[in-house]
Design brief:
By secondary structure, this protein is an alpha+beta fold. It has a single domain, classed as Alpha-Beta Complex (Aspartate Aminotransferase, domain 1), CATH 3.90.1150. It is built from 3 helices and 6 strands. It has a 6-stranded antiparallel beta sheet with strand order 1-2-3-4-6-5. Strand 2 and strand 3 form a beta hairpin. Helix 1 crosses helix 3. It starts with a helix and ends in a 7-residue tail after the last helix.
């Protein structure tokens, strides 16, 4: 999967979740996906490389960075709780779908019950 496809897969997965909004608070080149006003996914290009940056549990983030060379600490985000994913060996549609779903669930679980979609 190339970088553009990775971003498209992430965007489609995010859009399928309840209560998600697409915003551009950092400019038109950054697609920012939020649930109840909280970011769980961003897509953009860094030095010409399409990336998807998403929230991730610290232990899972570490394991993913060790397993996949194209998974790095989150670009311009908390390096412990965010990952940036680029196209690369082993990065599949299923993996991207799972990572986006996990990012969404992490944010929703932290919301007060009355704000959850």
């Amino acid at each position: 999967m190339d970088g553009r496809t990775l971003q498209e897969v992430a965007a489609l997965a995010a859009a399928a979740m309840p209560g998600v909004s697409l915003t551009h608070p950092f400019g038109p080149e950054h697609d920012v996906y939020k649930v109840a006003g909280r970011i769980f996914l961003m897509t953009t290009e860094v030095t010409g490389e399409p990336l998807a940056t998403m929230k991730c549990e610290p232990e899972h983030a570490l394991a993913l960075r060790q397993e996949f060379p194209s998974v790095r600490a989150g670009y311009h985000m908390n390096k412990r709780h965010w990952i940036s994913v680029a196209a690369g060996a082993g990065i599949t549609q299923e993996l991207v779908d799972e990572l986006v779903r996990n990012a969404y669930e992490l944010v929703v679980e932290a919301l007060p019950r009355d704000r959850r979609p």
